[in-house]
Amino acid sequence: MMIQDVTHDECRHLLTQLHLGRIGAAKDNQPYVLPFYFSYDDGYLYSFSTVGQHIEWMRANPKVCVETDEIVGLEEWVSIVIFGHYQELVDTPELKMERDKAYRLLQKKKLWWEPGYTKTMIKGIARPMIPVYFRVRIMQLSGRHTAPDHETVAPTVSPIDQPSNPSIRDILAALRARLYKP
Amino acid sequence: MMIQDVTHDECRHLLTQLHLGRIGAAKDNQPYVLPFYFSYDDGYLYSFSTVGQHIEWMRANPKVCVETDEIVGLEEWVSIVIFGHYQELVDTPELKMERDKAYRLLQKKKLWWEPGYTKTMIKGIARPMIPVYFRVRIMQLSGRHTAPDHETVAPTVSPIDQPSNPSIRDILAALRARLYKP
User: With an 8 Å Cβ cutoff, are A24 and B34 in contact?
Assistant: First the structure.
């Protein structure tokens, strides 16, 4: 097995296919990681959450890290890491377009639910769900993937030329083929 | 849908079933998240990596956050968040027992591979793989899970009383049943 870089173009293509990630915030150098759903569009990850400690940390310190991946096993995975900036899409006229875009993207991918229907019980007490739309501006992007060590795979089309909605497995196969062209 | 707390006992039980997580480090309040495999034992997560920027960050600042989960979809998930301390199990007589334990636990769960067989290509240059064993001491543990909003499920046995190796789905069902006892 080998671990190889994924190019920026390939990372961006993978980001259109992946929707579940983990987002890290930090306060006093203590990281705090939570799962989240996102939809990638033109240099930004759009997402939705409800107010809580994690959102408060990102409001106080917008430096975040997003990791998203497809992990089949120890020897077959692709992982993308993003260093980015948190931007809250507050309900103001200035941010209406971006907020509408977030709503549209998340609805389209069914990555959203009506927060009014969701209650959080903390130590038995219901907490109100305040919806928060935000986006992460991608400042730095990198990716790694596993590849067979001694194998050469027949080259196929690159992921970017593939027809609509190739599976992650297809993308990985294409990545490998490209990297292992004889 | 409702979001509910998972008790500490249930978190610890889930940690014996889950092995894939994401670990966040921080430097100058910039978080950095990577996927990792772990094996839980008695208040610690044991793991293995190779030297890289992430390990260097954790060496400089041992405050870490581990998130592990089972996510079926937006409305069906359980997630555990750990604030902990990174401790490297260096190859010294003092840490031999802990290092052997890490090796044993990771081997048992097949969460380990021979680093000599793995090369990392960074910008086309092979980087040596230096194995690093480490553990995360759990300082703070919390968990959340989704549960149906208006449903009451017949109570079943608690996860702790279940026979060996219940699936995550069984554990979730038992959690829900316990929380929704009429």
Answer: no
Is B20–A71 a contact, with Cβ atoms under 8 angstroms apart? yes
Task: Specify the DSSP element, H or E, that contains A99.
Answer: helix A96-108
Structural domains of chain A ordered from first start: 2-147 (2.30.110.10)
Contacts of A27 in chain B (CB under 8 A): 29
Instruction: Round to whole Å and give the CA distance between B43 and B39.
Output: 11
Taking alpha carbons only, the member of B43, B44, B49, B21 closest to residue B33 is B21
Q: Which residues contact A93 (CB under 8 A, 6 or more apart)?
A: none
CB contact under 8 Å between B29 and A61, yes or no, is yes
- For every residue of A123-172, DSSP letters joined together read TTEEE---EEEEEEEEEEEEEEEEE-SS--------GGGS-SS--HHHHH
- 3-state SS assignment for residue B68: strand
Structure tokens belonging to residue A51: 């107010």
Q: Which of B122, B128, B133 is nearest to A143 (CA)?
A: B122
Q: Which residue of chain B comes nearest to A30, CA vs CA?
A: B63
Q: What is the mean pLDDT of each run of 10 residues along chain B (182 residues)?
A: 88 94 98 97 94 95 97 89 98 95 90 66 71 96 84 44 55 62 48
Q: Could A79 and B34 be called an inter-chain contact, meaning their C-beta atoms sit closer than 8 Å?
A: yes
For tokens 């499920």, the residue is: B153
Q: pTM for this structure? A: 0.84
Could you tell me if the ipTM is greater than 0.90?
Answer: no
- Nearest Cα residue in chain A from B84: A30
Rounded CA-CA distance A24/A66 in Å is: 6
